[in-house]
Every structure is written in C-alpha cells, then in structure tokens.
C-alpha cells in the first residue's frame, strides 16, 4: 500500500498521457505548482510576515496577473506549449465575479501549461518560464 502511494506521487506522465488529461485537471495541478513558486519567491526575498506575504502574492496569483504573464510568454512558447495554453483558455469553466472573463481564461491556460510541464517532468523549462514571468510581473 505504501509503495503504491509513493509510485502515484512520483508518477511522470508521458506527453501523450498529459495531453489526454482534461485541461482543467492540468490547471488544477498547475495552480498548486504556480502558487508554490510564488510563495518561494516571496519568502526568499525576505518577507516573513504572513499577512504581508498574502498581500504581496496577490499581484502574482490573481487572474489579471497570470493573464499578463501568459500573454507575455506566448511568443516564447513552443507550438506544443501554446496548444496547451489555448486548450486551457478555451475550456469552459465558472468565472468568478471579481475576474474579467478574458483574464480568467488566460490564467487557466497558464495554469494548464504549468501543470503540463510539472506532470511531464519538464522542470528546467517550467523554471525558465516562471523566472521570466515573475520578472515581468515584478517590474
């Protein structure tokens, strides 16, 4: 039983397996991974007050920030990565009242890409895009 849990946690998806997942499933994974990158970035910058961390993270994790990042990165994405973003963007989902629909759609696309890269083990590429995106939003 314990080995089964370990195997599931360490599972790397093939490109075909990841492509076959619902884009919202990729975005679900991507949301958590993206949030962890942002949290690590903020904590490593010396912020230790949890309230301040939460306030500072908003510009990175809100739909408008993620949308801005997605749009800025699009030209540097491979065809496959652009396809993942488009699939996430075009998938029907509930849009919160506080978010603009277009921003929420692109944010979902970005999260789908992050989830895809994470599940397929493309850590270097994921980190490269996160560094570029965080630099953009930090300006």
Automatic annotation (TrEMBL):
Protein family according to the UniProt entry: Belongs to the MrnC RNase family.
Major localisation: cytoplasm
Name the record gives this protein: Mini-ribonuclease 3
EC category: hydrolase
Keyword RNA-binding applies: yes
Transmembrane regions: none
Residues annotated as catalytic: 31
InterPro entries the record matches: Mini3_fam (IPR008226), RNase_III_dom (IPR000999), RNase_III_sf (IPR036389)
Matching SUPFAM superfamilies: RNase III domain-like (SSF69065)
GO CC, any one term: cytoplasm
């Amino acid at each position: 039983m314990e080995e089964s849990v370990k195997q599931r946690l360490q599972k790397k998806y093939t490109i075909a397996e990841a492509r076959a997942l619902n884009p919202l499933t990729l975005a679900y994974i991507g949301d958590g991974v993206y949030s962890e990158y942002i949290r690590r970035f903020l904590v490593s910058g010396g912020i230790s007050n949890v309230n301040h961390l939460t306030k500072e993270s908003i510009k990175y994790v809100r739909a408008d920030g993620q949308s801005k990042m997605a749009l800025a990165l699009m030209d540097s994405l491979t065809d496959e990565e652009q396809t993942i973003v488009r699939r996430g963007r075009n998938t029907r989902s509930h849009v919160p009242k506080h978010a603009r629909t277009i921003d929420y759609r692109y944010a979902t696309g970005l999260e789908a890409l992050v989830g895809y890269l994470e599940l397929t083990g493309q850590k270097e590429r994921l980190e490269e895009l996160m560094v570029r995106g965080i630099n953009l939003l930090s300006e």
